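SAMPLE LOG
Freezer: B-3
Tube label: C17
Construct: single chain, 392 aa
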Amino acid sequence: MTGRRPAWIHPAFRLIEGEERFGWPELAGLAVPAGGVVQADRPSRVLAALAAAEEAGRGLLLARGAADPDGWQQGQGFSVTLESSGTTGTPKRLCHDFDRLRGRLRGVAEEGARWLLTYDPGAFAGLQVVLTAAAAGASLIAVPPRASSGITGLAEAARRHAVTHVSGTPSFWRAFLMALGDAELPLRAVTLGGEAADQPLLDRLAERFPGARLRHIYASTEAGALFAVADGRAGFPAAWLEEAPDGLALRIADGVLEVRSPRAAPGIANAEGWLSTGDLVERQDGRVLFAGRLDGLVNVGGVKVSPEAVERRLLAVGGVADAAVSAVPSPITGHLLTATIVPAPGVDGEALRAALRAATADLPPAARPRALTFADHIPLSAAGKKSRKGAA
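STRUCTURE (predicted):
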């Protein structure tokens, strides 16, 4: 690289990656692999590779896991190819125009802002955080993969650097709240994305961080950044089906949300510009609520069941800090649902078990978890989500 700072990196931007500190001069000095393929496990590596690809006018593949091009073609012109998380199936690669990728960034300078990076920097959500902090001239706090101790390590970094802005999945936030304990954070912004935000969690976050802006974002690797909801309620206003914000169009087809977006990856929509999100939704009391993934439905004795919908029912029970519902094979019914529960500190186990059974008593028999197991945490994927591979 020539060392010329890209326009999308504010001169005041600073990256703290473990014990290392980077401004633009340090990022410009990093070695960038030839061929346009970079293992996107560190934000410093991602930023340096983006700047180099833009300067060269060539494509860039942000590989998650092993940096294997596997048939990827670099091509002419600056573009960024992202890999989806593959939470419910095989990961996909989507090529984005860089300006379109940054279409909803709100890079307004905010004095003293310190972002905590909770996502994989090569994921769509992680890249949005990295680019937002870079554009705003904020500080970005990251825990290197080898130094990471999961949510506990992120909570320690958040306390150590007194972070003011945190974006994470709902699953991350439940675990993060437990890891924080009674520690105070000067949060100004609390953002959720990557999974549907449930009302009990939104209420907990609003109570714990009353001075912070609270919003949940809907986006995907395929569709790009779509919209943000900032009214403290789950789902989004049903009125958006008639008139959506930010140049979008939204509709429901056979219970699945479809979008038409100027920020979607090229070539993935149908001839009319509509893209199926794969998210099951339902209208209720003036809202559109998320009810699970179409590809996450499981067959229990001939009945299609959404583990996510059952999970949200359990998360609403008092005394539940976190929950995960998954499907296990059954020689009789094909699958059965089971639930892993993380009790809140000090909760009586037997009383909680009875409350959980009562909360699912009115569900169809196929949707009732056949086993309830208590645990001290729910394992999360690198994307900060509960992995559902193999559930269907």
